[in-house]
């Protein structure tokens, strides 16, 4: 039995929970486990938990009956071996199952209309054709009942099993598949565009030669890493954090805290990706509906990969495995799902004193907690960084392969950019939303928006040079739907009015956003209606344990019923209460030739920075790494 209420589910716990759930259905049913995860105990219980206390273990699952399409949520108590809650859901589609990927390929490849469409394009070797299943959104499909469980399939030519299919899109052929009834409902067979001939292979064997002038760069920690892992608890320097993997959210942090002179000071109760969307900006029949919700429709955790030493992470690495349930509720363990290591990060602080010649330099280093998910053509690598000066950073590195379309030889693509002969990379965005349940020195917090602005001409500002920070309290949910303003250096500060620093000011952390666009699709577009979260960089809500996903728990085929717009319509109070920040950010891709055939990493993220949380720079006690980095060395010819 795990020792802490937030310790991740063990394989045997998954097996036990699934057995209890399965017993609640007829044995001959086509019951599938679309989701299964630890049901987190109430926050108060977790925070109250002391070492050695008994733990209450509950497992939550969403079950899809592939026979009749019905959906149920169930919670099982592992302590009692019994179902504690069960409810039928109507009008929702759980995420796409792993087995459905195979179903789609089998159905499409045996459909006559689809085969004819490929023959029209000269594709006869169907065995190697790559079929990509796409969530379909809520676009009405003529002659198809909205209640059906639908995906659309796009396809690509591969000349060998390892060929990069995105180099050879089979343009304007799509199949619409009913997953529960296992039927191809429609085949769209539009204008024939020749299949591009150039290879897009990026593997080492496909290159004419490899450079030979990279010299070894080794990272060595002879005494081992500076962090410890005990169950889900990771400790490094003054930081402590619990780390786990959720099938939908991917990497999840809990109970981020800083040990400050013997005081255990919480900063954040829970942090996770709440949703991410990839809307395409192409108006054609082949693309206009492509709006993947990669978390809610596919699952970031379920699509996380196993990391390998020296490839994904470098240095003195430790890994954490993750246990998941497969479609049948059987457990499997993903080895090396989460990577932990320390990184040198240039200078932490430095000053050379002109008068004495003394020189003080400290090296910065950070703890890195990371995982990498592959969603179809794209990789998303998630990195949390913890620093010696009390700040935290989150970064998403995007790489992988662009979504492509074939274009006629001399043509340009109005909806994308030519990246190779006869090939266009389609314009798109990647928009992420992070749910950040901050707890700055305790749960009761408030939030202000801070702009740095020039002061107007008046008696106090006769030279017109004065400027400063102006704070505005975001007192309710309707006031707290905000966008960035880089020209005013806008940030959002979460403070605890009950805890003051030595200067008499409330202790605080600020969310420092990066410059990034919100959703570009019109407010009236289907994607905007389904993903309202993507229209604002910041939303703030009072904590509610069931509000975890910005677009609702079941975005697959949704019409935008759940999530932030729904919850915030109550305009709840945000002052001096337990608040949650929802931060939207992303990248807008108009592809470059250099993004082909594989995209070099592009990154986006944000920082959480202490503002009066500490009484001064908390990293003065970081020792100089070498004698030369501090003031014992005074130069003889120093300016005096
Ligand atoms: Ni992209």
**How would you classify the helix and strand content by structural class?**
mainly beta
Q: What fraction of the residues are assigned to beta strands by DSSP?
A: 35-45%
Shape: globular
Number of domains: 3
The second-level CATH architecture of the largest domain is Distorted Sandwich
**Unreliable runs:** none
CATH homolog superfamily of the largest domain: Copper amine oxidase, catalytic domain
Average pLDDT level: 96
Rg (CA only): 27 Å
Number of strand segments: 31
**Helicity, as a percent range:** under 10%
CATH class of the largest domain: Mainly Beta
The biggest sheet, with number of strands, parallel, antiparallel or mixed sense and barrel status, is: 20 strands, antiparallel
CATH topology of the largest domain: Beta-galactosidase, Chain A, domain 5
Distance between the termini: 67 Å
How many helices does DSSP assign?
7
Question: Could you walk me through the main structural features you see in this protein, from its secondary elements to its overall organization?
Answer:
The chain is mainly beta and 640 residues long. The protein has three domains: 11-89, Nuclear Transport Factor 2, Chain: A (Roll), CATH 3.10.450.40; 98-206, Nuclear Transport Factor 2, Chain: A (Roll), CATH 3.10.450; 234-611, Copper amine oxidase, catalytic domain (Beta-galactosidase, Chain A, domain 5, Distorted Sandwich), CATH 2.70.98. It contains seven helices and 31 strands. The protein has a 20-stranded antiparallel beta sheet that branches. The longest helix has 12 residues, at 11-22. The protein is globular and about 80 Å long.
